[in-house]
Fold this protein.
Amino acid sequence: MKQIKRTKLAPGEVRASDSWRTPLPLFAALDAEFSFDLDLAADATNALCRRWLGPGGRAEDALAARWADHGRVGFLNMPYSSDLILRFMAAVAQHGQDMTIVALHPHDSSVGWWRYTRHAVEIREMPHRVPYLRADGITKAGAMYASAISIYRPQPGILMGNPRHVLWSWKTRAALEKAERKNAMRLNRLDTFRGDDDAR
């Protein structure tokens, strides 16, 4: 997979993408499956669960809290600054031994923090990019990378496993088929344009 290129940040600096919100249809599909009771990285303006870790929540600093003390099934839309994602993925691997965690993050197996996904029971790849929302909750933020969902559950005695890999989508089959037809039409127009250009 193509490596995601990111500019380096100064110590303590965060990216705008750290505050990107999960689109509600994606969260709703996962919530219907897992019944989340804790948002693991949020604040009062963007929490998707009644209980959350972060400013104004059950714990001001999510990384300093013991997650299982606050919930049984947690959702995590990963902050994407390189230093934060590394710390959060390490925390997921640790706390995933005590509770169920569903983490949404970039799909980039070339980066160092990806090794923590080996503690997952399942990794869900998505055939389309996630239309994240900016901090205002309205404006779409076009992700420059694919995303994945990794799922962690307590596995007593297992130090590291071999996660099941699946292709997954929160969209309905009808919506996916419509997108495929639209893409096919776009490619057909492109082929027609190239054919006309070759004829000249």
Notes: The chain is about 25% helix and 15% strand. The chain has two domains: 16-169, 172-200.
